[in-house]
TrEMBL record:
GO molecular function (one): metal ion binding
Residues binding Zn(2+), per UniProt: 87, 89, 109, 112
Gene3D superfamilies to which the protein is assigned, alphabetical: Cytochrome c oxidase, subunit Vb
Alphabetic keyword roster: Acetylation, Membrane, Metal-binding, Mitochondrion, Mitochondrion inner membrane, Transit peptide, Zinc
Location of N6-acetyllysine modifications: 64, 82, 117
Keyword DNA repair: no
Protein name (record): Cytochrome c oxidase subunit 5B, mitochondrial
GO cellular component: mitochondrial inner membrane; respiratory chain complex IV
Length: 125
């Protein structure tokens, strides 16, 4: 008797499971694999947006080259009114000439005479 009850309940359970099949599995990423822009948050997102607009908010890219003359000085971004600048006066030099660059008129490197000018830079945050 007990065996019959067990068999009936097992058959009933099997039938109900078949009647209501589990929903088919589908991929959550129906729109494709998310890109870096989709997944970025916070500072990474700010930087990615700025890079798309062509702005380099944290000076991560190679600086533009300038002639270093008085008319076309090397532009040095700074968030304050002064910054230490290192000048490798000639391409093969093994030493760097360090000097303070102050806001205002372009200054010359004490060794080679290249001109540097401080430009104000605002951080994006
Ligand atoms: Zn120099």
């Amino acid at each position: 008797m007990a065996a019959r009850l067990l068999i009936r309940s097992a058959v009933r359970a099997a039938v109900t499971c078949r009647a209501a099949p589990a929903p088919a599995l589908h991929r959550c990423m129906a729109g494709g694999i998310p890109t870096d822009e989709d997944q970025a948050t916070g500072m990474e997102k700010i930087v990615m947006r700025a890079m798309k607009e062509g702005v380099d908010p944290y000076n991560m890219l190679k600086p533009k080259s300038y002639a270093g003359s008085k008319q076309d000085p090397h532009l040095v971004p700074s968030i304050t009114n002064k910054r230490i600048v290192g000048c490798v006066c000639e391409e093969d030099n093994t030493t760097v000439v360090w000097f303070w660059l102050h806001a205002g008129e372009p200054q010359r490197c004490p060794s080679c005479g290249s001109h540097y000018k401080l430009v104000h830079h605002d951080l994006p945050h």
